[in-house]
Every structure is written in C-alpha cells, then in structure tokens.
Amino acid sequence: MGPLLSNRIELETSDLNSNRISKLCRSLLNAVVSAVADAVLRYLQLKLMATVHQTQPNIQMLLATSDYVGALDLITATQDILMRDLAGIQSFR
Predict the structure, then answer these.
(1) 74-83, long-range: CB within 8 Å, 24+ apart, which pairs?
(2) Exposed end of the chain (fewer CB within 10 Å): N or C?
C-alpha cells in the first residue's frame, strides 16, 4: 500500500470517528437539555403548589376582614392554576 492510499484511509477513518463523536455529543447534549427542562418544569410546579397551599389561610383572612370580592378573586385564580398549570397532580402531600 502506497503512502497516498494510506493517508487517504487514515483521513476517512478520522472523518468517521469525528462524525461518530459529533453524533454522540449531540445526543448527550439533547439528553442534558431534556433533563434540565424537566427539572425546571418540576421546580415551577412545586412553586405553584406551595402558592396554592397558602391560599386557604389567605382566603380565611380576606373573609375575616369582609373582603369578599378579594376572596372570590383569589379562589378563582387558584382554581385556574389548578386546572391549567397543575392538571394531573393527584396529591399535595
């Protein structure tokens, strides 16, 4: 095998390895981005759950001060969050 053919084979092998590495890097990057996005979504859901958990004492306080409109607004907003953003959550334990 001549030096020219040997160099060509090395370049093709190098290109194949580079392509494999590139595909592997893209695959790993996609997996990491997906995991981070899932973690951020769970974090935001937990924050919403904590906010919803605090609404009952706030509603009671509004009712105790005769702020019925404020209490109804808070109840409506909480129902919207539960139906839209926390749909599928089975328990707040």
Answers:
(1) 78/52, 81/48, 81/51, 81/52, 82/52
(2) C
Q: Assign 27 to helix, strand or coil.
A: helix
Which amino acid, one-letter code, is at 8? Answer: R
CA dihedral 21, 23, 29, 35 (to 10 degrees): -120
Name the H helices within the chain.
3-53, 55-64, 68-84
Across the range 37-61, mean pLDDT stands at 93
Give the pTM: 0.62
pLDDT in tens, 15-48: 667 777 888 888 889 999 999 999 999 999 999 9
pLDDT at 69 over 90: yes
Supply angle C-alpha 59, 62, 64, rounded to 5.
110
Give dist(CA 48, CA 62) in Å, integer.
20
